[in-house]
Amino acid sequence: MPEFDLAIRGGTVVTASDTVRADVGVRGGRIVAVAEGIADAARVIDASGLLVLPGGIDSHVHIAQDSGPGIVMADDFASATRAAAAGGNTCVMPFALQPRGASLRGAVDAYRARAEGQCHVDVAIHMIISDPTEAVLGQELPALVADGYTSFKVFMTYDDLVLNDRQLLDVFHVARRQGARVMVHAEGYDAIRYLSERLERAGETRPYGHALSRPEIVEREAAHRAISHAELIDLPIVIVHVSGREATEQIAWAQGRGLKIRAETCPQYLTLTAEDMKGLGQDDPMAGSKYVCSPPTRDVESQEAVWSGIRRGIFDVVSSDHCPFRYDDPQGKLNPRGKTSFRWIPNGIPGIETRLPVFFSEGVSKGRISLNQFAALTATNHAKLYGLYPRKGSIAPGFDADLTLWDPNRRETIRQANLHHGSDYTPWEGFEVTGWPVMTIAGGQVIAEDGRVLSEPGRGRVLDRAVDPAERREA
Ligand code: DUC
Ligand code: ZN
Ligand code: ZN
């Protein structure tokens, strides 16, 4: 009987801290050896010329999430995780949304049932809290955290989701006591409403109005408010999908004061701009809606500010914020109300499959970040932030055998025709990249190779997590 189930030989192993030439030995779905000369294996994969990276962890994706009347998300768990696998990911983290007036427990149970048996890669579920009632804060949330749902997101905007300042403080207080991780969508509700109404009155209803209704100042103000509330409670929050210079400056300021503010950005804020929402050069006046996401993309100066923040260590994670809607679909971007105003265009773009190649190409291949920073920002730090470490996120004995074999020299052009998600477009159509995931291995099994997904839905598990007891502090 061979010593290993799988040996990956001859590659360059990259972790958040090291880059070494080594073989990787796998047994029982786990990494059991990283060493020279591993050969006694049931299956040997030749990784010469390739990087061996920790499987991508995308800690911010929306899958099969209820999206309001008449709007349907383009991915179910099978299609989203299939696309994730093809794009070099081995774990994704979607959101169970609590509708107002509903039980949080009920929302989480129903959402988990949607995922069970459907996934190609492992899934760990965050919650979205939209209605922090006494029962939610006093009973449901503590019980759910104890059951393994250790992180949740709160919104500072959207009619159906916004929490006011008192609610934010109450939720932060409970998170501190339970040791839960809080993600904050920082955009100011009232400022957006004020601007949206003015724009509509002035007849500015095109998709580009979305960008005008949510300028950077709106994100800066909310980021500062969230930071202040977190300081008051002494809670380490994550400000997610940071889009530009102004919010980045707030976070840098807070971190400079020693506050435990963590931050996430996404490839769209590094590669796309608000101009895309004008749909220039396309006959279809709604074409810009393909790029409508929140916060909106900004300008080249803001892209550079975010890159600078990444290089300076202000950002912990780069996620996709995959939030897929079909374009040519009355339940998607081209829904009838969306044609009357930007306000009704569903917010979000697909990106689960393109996150790693776009970020590698613009980051590593263009010399902006190191390979080790790439591993940290796309896998290791996600696992550390959200309670999956040291099970996932690195390459060492004891970790799940979740690996991506990466060709750093392969040049590709991103095309919707080659992607696996349920959306009918990609915002990166025609985008040229250098560096490509050629094989995805999850739990020691090859689940994707060269754009073909080899696993069956149900291979991936829904993971429970535990809080670090040191994070649980009386408020
Ligand atoms: N926030 C997200 O995180 N994703 C899509 C839309 C939004 O507002
Ligand atoms: Zn958000
Ligand atoms: Zn999101």
UniProtKB/TrEMBL annotation:
Entry-annotated residues carrying N6-carboxylysine: K153
Record's keyword terms, sorted: Hydrolase, Metal-binding
Residue ranges of domain Amidohydrolase-related in the record: 51-446
Cofactor requirements of the protein: Zn(2+)
Protein EC: 3.5.2.2
InterPro entries assigned: Amidohydro-rel, Hydantoinase/dihydroPyrase, Metal-dep_hydrolase_composite, Metal_Hydrolase, Metallo-dep_Hydrolases_sf
GO molecular function, a single term: dihydropyrimidinase activity
Entry PTM: Carbamylation allows a single lysine to coordinate two divalent metal cations.
GO cellular component: cytosol
Enzyme class: hydrolase
Family assignment from sequence similarity: Belongs to the metallo-dependent hydrolases superfamily. Hydantoinase/dihydropyrimidinase family.
Record-linked PANTHER family: COLLAPSIN RESPONSE MEDIATOR PROTEIN (PTHR11647:SF1), HYDRANTOINASE/DIHYDROPYRIMIDINASE FAMILY MEMBER (PTHR11647)
Name of the featured protein: Dihydropyrimidinase
Organism the protein comes from: Methylobacterium oryzae CBMB20
Highest classification ranks of the organism: Bacteria, Pseudomonadati, Pseudomonadota, Alphaproteobacteria, Hyphomicrobiales
